[in-house]
Fold Sporulation integral membrane protein YlbJ.
Amino acid sequence: MKSQQKSRWSTTLLGLMVVLFTLALVVYPKEGFEAGLGGMKLFWHTVFPSLLPFFILAEFMLGLGVVRGFGVILEPLMRPLFSVPGIGAFALSMGLAAGYPMDAVITARFRQQNLCSRVEGERLLAFTNTADPLFMIGAVAVGMFKSPEIGALLAVAHYISAFLVGVSFKLWGRRVEQADHDENPVAPVPAGTPHGTSAKRGNLFLRAFHEMIAAREEDGRPFGKIMRDAVVESMQTLIMICGFIVFFSVLIDVLRVSGLIQVIGWPIAVVYHVFGIHSGLVPPTLAGILEIDVGTAQAAAVQAAPMLQKLALVSAIIAWSGLSVHAQVASVLTETDIRMRPYFLARFLHAAFAAVVTVVLYALGMGHVAATMASSLPAFAAAQTMTGQLPWWHVMEASLDLWLLLFALLAVLSVALWVVRKIRVVAWRV
């Protein structure tokens, strides 16, 4: 009875909100059209060319078994740190290179192919939902703040906080896993290794090769069909993302011109007043809750607010990623059993960690140090030279460089851990 009443109230509330939004579009048709056009331009000039190649490449790697092969190599790194299979490194690296919502697309594909359990998918989605460095350094720092050092600071804080979220979610769902183990006394084959090859002893790279071949044979599709499926599924996902971007762009602008955003934001204004945060950051906070680009741009434009407060807010908005990205992730996960509740919890935790880490790094004067360290990476160096928006082929080149660098680093760390483990076993036998 309580669940039925709750469902009725939520349906009534959502219906009322939809009616009010429709009436607002009738009252402000010009503003709604211009906001929708701006969202479409953002998608066409930035999102579409930057995400489409990564979506297609991800489908290729899954179909050809490359992901399962890398998963065997990276299992010794990802399993102890985050309690996820080694293929999680692929979602992490692709999310880092392409940004939102690439990690959700990869994680959903893992779950559909039974390469991870539901709990492991939720853990993986918790810390791989990251922004790409070109957005933080190029668009936010150079484009909005006119300072590459700020971009390096935001990027370092963003990835440190994502790592903290991953470690924090290591114990997520342990009771569910224990209950499944109690129901099935026979130890299941680790997720991501359907044939159990990664669980056997032997040469690490040889096992990875065998797993890749086994995955390719299991898929069985010819190369032409893999290419067709990759393009079709990628285009469908991108069209869905385009719809969400346009919708939330219109929603934010209608709330702004109608004055409703001031009414909705009064609780945040009270909290900001209590903690001594500048009142001019209330509208950017509300905009950032809905959409990441609008929120960061508005926060950077508040001239009277202290720089530290603006940086902490921008860092939290980037980590939160906005309800627009959340809606995209939810739509991608509809064909899986991965729940959105842990994802929301992880985003809130990521935002809190990012704000705190940004304040600490700023207080320690780490902005210039982070910029010096980051300038040695190809993607960071390309973003620092931005005076406007980079052409899409430059974005792709820098993102691919960073993706390959991260994947190589993860592989080296995983092999190092495997070697240390072998040495310990040999020493114990001796």
